Amino acid sequence: MDTTTSSTTGNGSGSDKAAAAMQSAKGTYNEIKGVAQKSAASLRSDLSSLKNDLDSLVNRSSSLSDDELAQAHAQLMAKFSSVRYAAKGIATEASRQLNRGMETTTEYVKDKPMQSVAVAVGTGLLLGLLFKRR
C-alpha cells in the first residue's frame, strides 16, 4: 500500500512540476514580451527622431557652414550609433528568448515524449485536413 501511495504521489509531483514549469514559462514569456514591446517602441521613437533630424538637416544644409555641417554630422552619427546599439540589444534578447523557448520545449518533450508525439500527430492531421480543403 505504501508503494501505491508513493507512486501516486510521484506522478502527482511530476504533474505539479510540469504545471509549475508551464506557469513559470508563461510568466517569463509575458514579462519578456512587455520588455520587448517597450524596447521596440523606444527604438521606433528613436528611429523617427533620427529621420526627422536628418530631414531637418537636409532642408537647411545649404545655409550651414562647413563647421556646422560637421557638427550636425557628428550628432547624427552619435544618434545612429545609439539606435544601432539598441537594435543589437533587441536582437540579442530575441535570440536569447528563442534559445530559452527551444530549451523549454526540449525539456517538455523529454519529460513527456508520448504526449508530445500525440500533440504533433494531432497538429499534423489538423493541418492536413485544413490544407486538403483548399
UniProtKB/TrEMBL annotation:
Record bears the keyword Lyase: no
Disordered: annotated span: 1-23
Protein species of origin: Noviherbaspirillum saxi
Span of domain DUF883: 105-134
Protein name as it appears in the record: DUF883 family protein
Lineage of the species this protein comes from: Bacteria, Pseudomonadati, Pseudomonadota, Betaproteobacteria, Burkholderiales
Composition bias, Low complexity: 1-10
Molecular function in Gene Ontology: ribosome binding
Membrane spanning residue stretches: 114-131
Keywords (A to Z) from UniProt: Membrane, Transmembrane, Transmembrane helix
